[in-house]
Specification:
Blueprint: E1 3-4, H1 15-35, H2 40-44, H3 54-73, E2 76-89, E3 91-97, H4 115-129, E4 134-140, E5 144-151, H5 154-162, H6 176-186, E6 195-201, H7 209-221, E7 224-230, E8 237-238, E9 240-241, E10 244-245, E11 256-257, H8 261-270, E12 275-277, H9 283-292, E13 297-309, H10 311-327, H11 344-360, H12 362-382, H13 386-399, H14 404-419, H15 424-442, H16 449-465, H17 469-482, H18 487-544, H19 553-586
Parallel strand pairs: 3-4, 3-6, 6-7, 7-12
Antiparallel strand pairs: 1-2, 2-13, 4-5, 8-11, 9-10
Helix pairs in contact: 1-3, 3-10, 4-5, 6-7, 7-8, 12-13, 12-14, 13-14, 14-15, 14-16, 15-16, 16-17, 17-18, 18-19
Length: 593
């Protein structure tokens, strides 16, 4: 089971996408800066050493290394396995003399360190050297007492050792035989475990010296090693008390005590051990070497579960990735171009094998090239370079004639170029080419419904701009049948419907106006006919009245002026009627959208 010791540190993995985003922002900023110097395709030729594949490879290595380091910090665990630990050692029982003589000086000076203090210092150092051994502690004077049974708890042993005080024991004396017997009984019953007794004493005031030696021999029979540590000085010194030196009640003289090294050595020899003096600097080393001769055996076996630590694996993987990243440079590897990996003979075989594989991948390669050309065309389109964008789309259509995306983008490019065309004929040609492309894309609504919906939307815009509002309404409706939730198309449909309604109303009004104008013209013609008839009657009257005197020149001139005025008024009414018709024609709403 894969777990983590510190799962809370997994949030460090958020640094990986942050670094990747920074990389793409840096690449985008670099591209923007390069675009200021000209077309990127042209600038690439000016930077032949720059590799476009190595930067993405380097950021991939760095992001992977960062992720592996974050996982390593979380301390991954691969599972749990059981482990057993076994301790080998011996059992050691320490017997400490607590008779009043242990209050005396450990040196020949009565004011020196007490024997009890010297014994505690030696035993504390000895316990520190007992790594895997078990230790027990007894005290003795006239009688022997067990303070700690055999245990591995060294801390408790030191605490009880420091609490020993001879003044707390009333039944005074020095019974070494009883101490050895008590120590033998303190060991465990397992005979396969090595055992050793360390006797701390000044070997004085023995009630039964022979009994102490016999007890040591008995310990040897039980395969128990007996070592003796003597404390004190062979020179007699007084035993101090609170009231002063201890006094012998029989003689009235101060009591003096001295270390009996001969007896201590005899006891150690009978117990197959050694005797050392606590004042000797090498006493502990000699004692430790002697105790090492005791056979050690397994004292304790502990079983516990341990997790398989995997953080080192992730750490090494991250280090390897970082080292690889260091040796990858941004420039191209030029020396690879100079190496010929195959001879001519083998090259033919390799090319045949590769061509067979490439034949299977030809279709996929063509699709990739077509998509790349479409992408390049989109970049040129967005930058306003419609002419080069159309060329890229045409190249894509040559590779993949059925590419509806390339055809759609080409048609849209024609439409955008028509907006900036200088002549009406070129504009009409571009609009027609764009509309034809959109018509073809619109027919593929089953394979690419969304693209067909966009094509119908653009056809609606073309019809709208040509004031073919009926055609625009039809195209918008077809687009909405494919994509009913397109609010932009729905808004344009409402505008086109409104324009169509206004157009119909304007046509009706124009027809009414034309009818009214025709009626006015008929009335004017009738008036003109009446005037002509009146003039004819006047002429006939004049001819009939030839007998009357001729009209004088002034009267004739007035009549001619009156006739000319009537004719001028008639022409003015006709011109006014014609001017009114032309004003209505120009008043049509020709708003482009």
């Amino acid at each position: 089971m894969f777990t983590f010791a510190y799962p809370a540190l997994l949030f460090l993995l958020l640094a990986v996408p942050f670094v990747v985003v920074l990389y793409f922002l840096a690449r985008y900023a670099r591209k923007k800066k390069l675009a200021k110097f000209g077309n990127l395709d042209s600038i690439k030729d000016l930077m032949p050493e720059v590799s476009k594949y190595k930067p993405p490879l380097k950021i991939a290595l760095e992001a992977s290394a960062l992720a592996l380091l974050a996982i390593a910090l979380c301390r991954p665990w691969g599972g749990v396995h059981s482990t057993k630990s076994q301790k080998e050692g011996i059992e050691v029982v320490i017997a400490v003399d607590v008779s009043n003589s242990m209050l005396a000086s450990s040196t020949s000076d009565n004011a020196g360190t007490s024997r009890m203090r010297a014994a505690k210092l030696v035993l504390e150092k000895l316990i520190n050297r007992l790594d895997n051994d078990r230790v027990g502690l007894i005290v003795y004077a006239q009688d022997a007492y067990t303070l700690i049974p055999v245990t591995s708890d060294y801390v408790s042993a030191k605490i009880f050792l420091n609490s020993i005080d001879p003044t707390q024991y009333d039944n005074q004396g020095t019974n070494i035989g009883a101490a050895i017997d008590r120590a033998i009984k303190s060991f465990s019953a397992d005979n396969n475990i090595g055992k050793s007794i360390v006797l701390i004493t000044d070997a004085e005031e023995l009630d039964d010296e022979a009994g102490a030696v016999d007890a040591a021999k008995q310990a040897k029979k039980n395969h128990i090693q007996l070592n003796v540590v003597g404390v004190g000085s062979p020179s007699p010194v007084r035993i101090p008390t609170k009231a002063g030196p201890m006094i012998n009640p029989e003689t009235g003289m101060p009591v003096e005590t001295a270390l009996d090294e001969n007896l201590a050595a005899r006891i150690a020899g009978a117990g197959d051990g050694i005797y050392v003096n606590a004042s000797n600097p090498d006493a502990l080393n000699e004692l430790e070497k002697q105790m090492d001769t005791v056979k050690k055996s397994a004292l304790e076996t502990n079983a516990y579960a341990v997790h398989d630590e995997l953080f080192s694996i992730f750490g090494w993987m991250a280090l390897i990735l970082l080292l690889i990243d260091v040796f990858i440079l941004d420039r191209k590897i030029r020396w690879l171009d100079k190496i010929t990996f195959f001879k001519k003979e083998t090259a033919v075989i390799v090319l045949l094998a590769v061509s067979a594989a490439c034949a299977l991948d030809a279709s996929a390669t063509t699709n990739r090239k077509e998509r790349r050309l479409v992408t390049q065309g989109n970049e040129l389109f967005n930058s306003g370079n419609f002419l080069e964008a159309a060329d890229k789309y045409q190249q894509a259509l040559k590779l993949e004639p059925d590419s509806k995306e390339a055809l759609y983008n080409l048609g849209l490019t024609y439409i955008r170029r028509a907006n900036s065309a200088q002549s009406d004929s070129l504009r009409q040609q571009l609009v027609k080419a764009g509309a034809d492309a959109m018509q073809t894309v619109a027919q593929s609504f089953k394979e690419k419904p969304l693209l067909a919906a966009d094509a119908l939307y653009n056809l609606g815009n073309i019809a709208f701009n040509s004031e073919d509002f009926a055609g625009a309404v039809q195209m918008y409706k077809q687009s909405l049948r494919i994509r009913p939730d397109d609010e932009k198309t729905r808004r344009n449909l409402r505008i086109a419907q409104k324009k169509l309604k206004n157009q119909d109303q304007n046509q009706d009004q124009n027809q009414d106006q034309n009818q009214d104008q025709n009626k006015d013209q008929d009335k004017d013609q009738d008036k003109n006919k009446d005037q002509d008839k009146q003039e004819q009657n006047q002429n006939q009257d004049q001819q009939q009245n030839n007998q009357q005197p001729e009209i004088n020149p002034q009267a004739a001139e007035q009549i001619l002026n009156a006739m000319e005025n009537k004719e001028n008024q008639t022409r003015a009414r006709v011109n006014k009627s014609n001017n009114g018709q032309e004003a209505v024609g120009r008043g049509k709403n020709s708003k482009r959208w």
